């Protein structure tokens, strides 16, 4: 009988998809995989439920179980469907008994191990009660995770809070100087606030209760922090860190088998463009990537002035921000065409394409015509850019994306920063200049060379005797040993 691993993914596209890539690897290595799902139907934003449905239908060898829905307080979700941290933690907590019942239902064969998302760490208590070894899956990079794990131990009582530090840098082993202002927003709240304490608690529980950490990165991409975490001196006197396994990149692959009739129309346009000639702009799968009308117009002007071919995925802001402007519809679903500068779409037809809401990002990045990627720095997108060998322009929006940007620019050398994000507006002039830099200059060629080297490193990591394949083998060995001695 196959050993059964239960995966408990986070309730967000960026957390769910990499764990489903992990599911594939476990199945390929002979394990049975069951996925416990918190029902995504409560979300007002449709991207996550649609993603879950697509993945469930595509993985017949994986057992998916939707946990019973629980009653949620009205304030659990924000208006746009994104969860605040406290609401998310409450959601996971309310599902613990449902998860417990599901694990119990798998008797007599039982559960070999439980792997939970890094923000769902309270679910490890469920595994502990049932004597099931629990591991944590972190869908992002090791650098941001190392910061997350160390924050509770690096600010002594009486020292300025992270909030008070502002842009002053944190100096952590194996990492470039990280401005305190770039941390997760919850760490920048008042230290006595409920959300700050909750985030610190999640960090401590990650560090103390997991049997090990699976991280969606590969060693040659982040060698300094890998070595630093292996050195006990990086823990600042805190508890010894559980083993960590760099098993990335876990990303979806370009669908080269897709029937041409099913291909998105933007791919047919890319087919007609010269190699490495197109700038691709896309800002993630959630509503957080919706820019203001003013920002959309700056992007449009900058793209047009740059003279570069472009493929731009646009989401309209949910409401009008200028009631005196009659050029657009102030309903929730605005007309994107009317939000852009007059005549922009007509003038750029041919060298440019505007796609509303969604494009097949992985397929676009792997297309020979794509030459640069303007990204919000979500880690899935970063890995997709790396594995496609495309240099990037960083425009962070939220979560760990500011930290990712520092790592991409300062440590990995694969991107340039759109500095205007700090003021809340990237000007047309900056966008034009940065796009030209990446597409036309020697500095851009150097970026491309470095990202190409990391692309090759990503492929090597999962090759025979590669670092990620070896780390995955260590994980399976440690997991089997821990399960057998319980």
TrEMBL record:
CDD domains: GT1_Gtf-like
Entries under Pfam families matching the protein: UDPGT
GO molecular function per UniProt: UDP-glucosyltransferase activity
Entry EC no(s): 2.4.1.-
Enzymatic class: transferase
Top-level taxonomic group: Eukaryota
Keywords carried by this UniProt record: Glycosyltransferase, Transferase
UniProt xrefs under Gene3D superfamilies: Glycogen Phosphorylase B
Signal peptide from the UniProt entry: none
Segments traversing the membrane: none
Family of this protein: Belongs to the UDP-glycosyltransferase family.
Protein name, as recorded: Glycosyltransferase
Organism per entry: Oryza nivara (Indian wild rice)
């Amino acid at each position: 009988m196959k050993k059964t691993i239960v995966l408990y993914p986070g309730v967000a596209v960026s957390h769910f998809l990499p764990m489903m890539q992990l599911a594939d690897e476990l199945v390929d290595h002979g394990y049975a995989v069951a996925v416990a799902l918190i029902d995504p139907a409560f979300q007002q934003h449709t991207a996550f439920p649609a993603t879950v449905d697509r993945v469930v239908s595509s993985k017949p060898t994986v057992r998916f179980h939707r946990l019973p829905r629980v009653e949620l307080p009205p304030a659990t979700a924000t208006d746009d469907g994104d969860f605040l941290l406290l609401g998310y933690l409450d959601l996971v907590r309310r599902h613990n008994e449902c998860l417990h019942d599901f694990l119990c239902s798998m008797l007599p064969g039982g559960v070999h191990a439980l792997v939970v998302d890094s923000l769902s760490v309270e679910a490890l208590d469920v595994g502990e009660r049932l004597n099931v070894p629990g591991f944590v899956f972190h869908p992002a990079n090791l650098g941001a995770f190392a910061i997350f794990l160390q924050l509770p131990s690096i600010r002594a009582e009486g020292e300025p809070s992270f909030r008070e530090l502002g842009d002053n840098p944190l100096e952590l082993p194996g990492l470039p100087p990280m401005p305190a202002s770039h941390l997760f927003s919850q760490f920048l709240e008042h230290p006595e606030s409920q959300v700050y304490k909750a985030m610190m608690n999640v960090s401590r529980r990650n560090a103390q209760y997991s049997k090990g950490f699976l991280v969606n990165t590969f060693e040659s991409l982040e060698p300094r922090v890998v070595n630093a975490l292996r050195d006990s001196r990086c823990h600042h006197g805190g508890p010894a860190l559980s083993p960590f396994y760099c098993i990335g990149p876990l990303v979806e692959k370009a669908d080269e088998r897709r029937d041409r009739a099913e291909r998105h129309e933007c791919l047919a346009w890319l087919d007609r463009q010269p190699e490495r000639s197109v700038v691709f702009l896309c800002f993630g799968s959630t509503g957080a990537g919706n820019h203001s009308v003013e920002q959309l117009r700056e992007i449009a002007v900058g793209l047009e002035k740059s003279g570069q071919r472009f493929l731009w995925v646009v989401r309209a802001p949910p409401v009008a921000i200028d009631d005196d402007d009659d050029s657009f519809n102030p309903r929730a679903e605005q007309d994107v065409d009317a939000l852009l500068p007059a005549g922009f779409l007509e003038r750029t037809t041919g060298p440019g394409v505007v796609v509303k809401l969604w494009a097949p990002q992985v397929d676009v990045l792997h297309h020979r015509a794509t030459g640069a990627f303007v990204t919000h720095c979500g880690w899935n997108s970063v890995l997709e850019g790396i594995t496609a060998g495309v240099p990037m322009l960083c425009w962070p929006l939220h979560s760990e994306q500011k930290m990712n940007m520092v790592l991409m620019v300062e440590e990995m050398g694969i991107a340039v920063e759109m500095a205007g994000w700090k003021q809340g507006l990237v000007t047309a002039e900056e966008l034009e200049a940065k796009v030209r830099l990446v597409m036309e200059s020697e500095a851009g060629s150097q970026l491309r060379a470095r990202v190409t080297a990391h692309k090759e490193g990503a492929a090597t990591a999962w090759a025979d005797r590669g670092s990620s394949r070896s780390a995955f083998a260590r994980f399976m060995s440690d997991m089997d040993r821990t399960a057998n001695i319980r």
